[in-house]
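Example (one chain per record):
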Amino acid sequence: MSDLKAKLHTLCVAYVQTRMQAAEQAIAEAQQAQNDDTKSSAGDKYETGREMAQQETNRNLAQLNEANKLMVALNQISFNGSSSKAETGSLIMTDNGIFYLAISAGTLLLDGKTYVAVSPASPIGFKMKDKKAGEEFILNEKTYQIQQVL
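Predicted structure:
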């Protein structure tokens, strides 16, 4: 089972790396646009263009920072152990889906099965945390029965 968790962990790492690369690419493009913007006779237009490029750079830097935080969180997850209660790194099988408690990476497809990577801080992750097989929780008026925690 730790092999399955390792594969899901790898998919989460790939998700974060993709986000980081996209942010880095957008930062480079915004900086290039800022550098290419030559001052025209309409000075206000030049300043507006530079400011918009700077705002875009700042927004992408914030996204890159968030992706770095996700990578740090992933690096702290042990996916080799097994616990009877849901905790970070656990695979939680419910009657409404299979969840990997790690980071909010959304739907992961692996070997023809669908898994949902959720953060322990997310509403569903928070409800699942410390639950054991046989227990249930309610989220958005929907009851989830935990069948197994790996």
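Caption: The CA atoms of residues 120 and 126 lie 5 Å apart.
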